[in-house]
Amino acid sequence: MKNKEPIILVVVVFFSLLTYYLVEPYAHHVMHKHVDSESFAYADLPAMTKTGDVARGQDLVMGAGACVGCHSIEAAGMPAAMEPQMAAASYGVNPPDLSNVGAILDAKFLADLIKNPAHALKVEHKFDANKGQMHPMVPFYGAGGDIDQEVADMVAYLQSIAVSPSDVTPAMAFENACGRCHAMSYENWTQIGTKPKFKHEKDSLAFDIKVLEYQDSIKAYMGKLPPDLSMYIRSRNEQFLSTFVENPQNHLAGTAMPRTGVTADSMEKVLEHMRNAGDTKRHERAEVGRNVMIYIIIFAIFALLWKKQVWRDLH
């Protein structure tokens, strides 16, 4: 009887490849469509045409702008008005400290965020002022002068108190852009900050209760608890993460996740922090690999010299 196994194998391979061909395009181009980067240019936002004055900006941020009513500015000696979980209960999420936003966020984005938060964050579908759905951050309506100049002054002040962009660490970029909504348990990071090491269990539990209270507010504000990002760098590719942070609506229309407005350099630092969390041994592994390669090269040199010595009299 003729062996039919090769025929069966061919049929199985054919239909497997056909199934893969039909499913793969759908999986990658429909369910996970490719989104090109916008180069963090924020082209939909108006350009800043005014040169800001730092001194006037400080007066506005501390006064008519009412920024310190909700935000802390540790760099200027202004602590937070309330604890994170209490702030989240009031606003949905803890307002960020403004010390380094001038270095981490794009200037155009920061200006539009001051004037029209829902527009800058791309959450107008969730906060429609015409329907009375106001964003928790109150827009700046001006202090009686040229509002564009006043906003430019405020941005100039925030940039003046921030560290140099080159001094922004990966942890700083992550905490500012992502850390008030996302936990990173592998780095011991919670939405209200790094969990300290407590001497007494009751103190640890008290901290956990604050985190749970904060998370309840986030769930109510966002619709669900944003995921822990410890391993996202391993489960999502970096291009996806970068373009998702750049403009979440491009990937998931209607999502409650806001656009964060980070610069391209800040986004790279966010990714670096995620790499460090998702692969804690990567630097150590790279160093070991380098040392192994050095050893192999040295060993090869000595082996070659030894081979020449042994075979010298036989040639």
Question: What is the topology?
Answer:
Layout: H1 5-31, H2 54-62, H3 84-91, H4 101-104, H5 107-115, H6 117-120, H7 147-161, H8 170-177, E1 189-190, E2 193-194, H9 201-222, H10 232-235, H11 238-246, H12 248-251, H13 264-278, H14 282-311
Antiparallel strand pairs: 1-2
List keywords for this structure.
two-stranded antiparallel sheet
Structure overview:
With 315 residues, the chain is mostly helical. The protein folds into three domains: 1-33; 54-280, no CATH class; 283-314. The chain is 53% helix and 1% strand. It has 14 helices and two strands; from the N terminus they run ααααααααββαααααα. A two-stranded antiparallel ribbon has the order 1-2. α2 crosses α7, α3 (84-91) runs parallel beside α9 and α8 packs across α13. The protein is globular. It starts with a helix and ends with a helix. The mean pLDDT is 91.
- The value of Rg in angstroms is 27 Å
| Percent strand | under 5%
First-residue to last-residue Cα separation: 61 Å
The helix count comes to 14
Strand order of the largest sheet: 1-2
Mean pLDDT: 91
The main sheet comes to:
2 strands, antiparallel
Count structural domains.
3
Give the H and E element order: HHHHHHHHEEHHHHHH
- Helix fraction bin: 40-55%
- Give the total of beta strands: 2
Low-confidence stretches: none
Assign the structural class, choosing from mainly alpha, mainly beta, alpha/beta, alpha+beta, or little secondary structure: mainly alpha
